Amino acid sequence: MDIWRLIINSPNSGAWNMALDEAILENVATKRQPPTMRLYDWHPYALSLGHAQPFADVNLETLNSQGWDVVRRPTGGRAILHADELTYSISAHEDDSHVSGNVLESYRLLSSGLLKGLEIAGIVADSKPKNQQEKNLAFNPVCFQYPSDYEITFQGKKLIGSAQARRNHGVLQHGAIPLFGDITRIVAVLSFPDEQTQIDARQLLAKRATNIEQVLNKNLSWFFLAECMQKGFEQALGIQFVLGNASAEEKQRAHQLLHEKYANPEWTQRI
Length: 271
What we know:
By secondary structure, this protein is of the alpha/beta class. Helix content is 37%, strand content 23%.
């Protein structure tokens, strides 16, 4: 049975969360650390953009008025508002059997852990390739409006949004599991050409996305869902977690990345 490191972190800023994810990826990719799953949260709430998403998608005035952060992820995909959620990240070397193959194959493998975690929490969800309509709408600025291949849905509504990056022999996948709250809040902090387009986007998002509370008609605690995810990945992937922490080297590298990239407005707004 493969041994993975499990890191459970208290809420932190979007910039620190992204910097630490990348620092852990670098160490795992060089096999200085074992494959790692990190479970964390965000404070304050933060809008994260995909690595190549235009910053023009952000309504910065409204975002600042809400007191929310904005950060650019090391992974692709579209915008996510990180609020009232459990976030997971998985870092592994590319030769690890659990992330082997291409992006879609690894998505499918890792989705089995997410599905099992949700099942333990009482939710029977789905993971399947996206249909042609969803492929045609892949450039919508809101991540949760349409699922990507093998992302997690419940009765057709997206429940978990994930994104992946591969670099220097390492694979990073992270994703958001909304626990409760208004799933359409993100629309207010994105730019639209006119008010009607924004209204339409909000209505569509309400139809296409959901959260744990809406699915179960009750709220689950962050720690309970974290425990379910830990068990789900262990059972589905045949691994064993050992609780640990980010190393001193990883934290030092994260501070460097924080200043160079993730907390640097010039880097965040460069596209």
